[in-house]
Specification:
By secondary structure, the chain is of the alpha+beta class. The protein has 3 domains: about 90 residues; about 60 residues, bsu07140 like domains (CRO Repressor), CATH 3.30.240; about 55 residues, bsu07140 like domains (CRO Repressor, 2-Layer Sandwich), CATH 3.30.240. The chain has a 4-stranded antiparallel β-sheet with strand order 2-1-3-4. It has a 4-stranded antiparallel β-sheet with strand order 6-5-7-8. Helix 1 packs antiparallel against helix 2. The longest helix has 24 residues. The mean pLDDT is about 80.
Length: about 240
């Protein structure tokens, strides 16, 4: 067999088998992965790439290795769900990095967090002033959970004794300048209606990065903006 054809076939087989293992293990976003999940994913990917291009490794040996590793990973995930001790061993426990407004420096070091890392993660949560934070925890997936101080907590309707109406989901009818005809049809509208609404706002479909329609058929359009970036002082 031609070497290039063999690589092509092995790559396709490796990809399909890796996809089957991924479906068996379940879909999780990168942000939801623990360090253990991340390492397992890298290892499976490495095994798949070896199967694809290493002609010394037989196909069956490669598939058996991936299957055993995938099964082992699946069994460990079941064990982690059923045993708190196993879950803590494989996934770890949350760390308190800010406790009642105080930075826990020893916990920062254990979490391999620098002060700049902490400030960056706080900014991504919408807290540009660390004095507004009461508690901050590093979750087992590396994400930061933040509890603001009482006076900095956002006001909710319940605080004002209000009962606002429930909101429905919005439909994305334009993404990256492309009209999503199927989504329009799902909300009972067509391209002619969308064109009329865009004309009222003086916007072309190709100039919109996103357009959404709510349950009351209100169209919200977000144009593609090209603005320069300013100087930052966060480092």
């Amino acid at each position: 067999m031609n070497v290039y054809v063999e690589i092509l076939l092995r790559s396709i087989l490796s990809f399909v088998f890796l996809l089957l293992i991924a479906k068996m293990l379940g879909a999780r976003q990168i942000s939801q992965l623990s360090y253990f999940d991340y390492i397992l994913g890298i290892t499976l990917g490495s095994m798949a790439s070896s199967l694809a291009i290493d002609d010394v490794l037989s196909v069956w040996k490669g598939l058996i290795g991936m299957a055993v590793f995938g099964l082992f990973t699946f069994l460990l995930s079941i064990l982690s769900r059923k045993s708190i001790r196993a879950r803590r061993f494989f996934e770890g426990k949350p760390r308190i990095l800010i406790n009642e407004g105080k930075i826990m420096y020893n916990e920062l070091k254990k979490a391999q967090f620098s002060i700049n890392d902490l400030l960056r993660e706080l900014r991504t949560q919408g807290y540009f002033n660390i004095a507004d934070v009461n508690f901050a925890l590093e979750e087992t997936n590396g994400m930061l959970s933040v509890m603001p101080k009482g006076k900095k907590r956002p006001v909710v309707a319940e605080d004002l004794n209000l009962a606002p109406p429930e909101q429905g989901l919005c439909a994305n009818v334009i993404i990256d300048g492309k009209i999503m005809a199927a989504n329009l049809k799902a909300v009972g509208k067509d391209i002619r209606w969308l064109a009329d609404e865009l004309e009222k706002q003086g916007i072309l479909a190709e100039d919109a990065v996103l357009a959404t329609v709510d349950k009351d058929y209100n169209l919200s359009v977000y144009k593609k903006e090209n603005l320069g970036t300013g100087r930052t002082t966060f480092q």
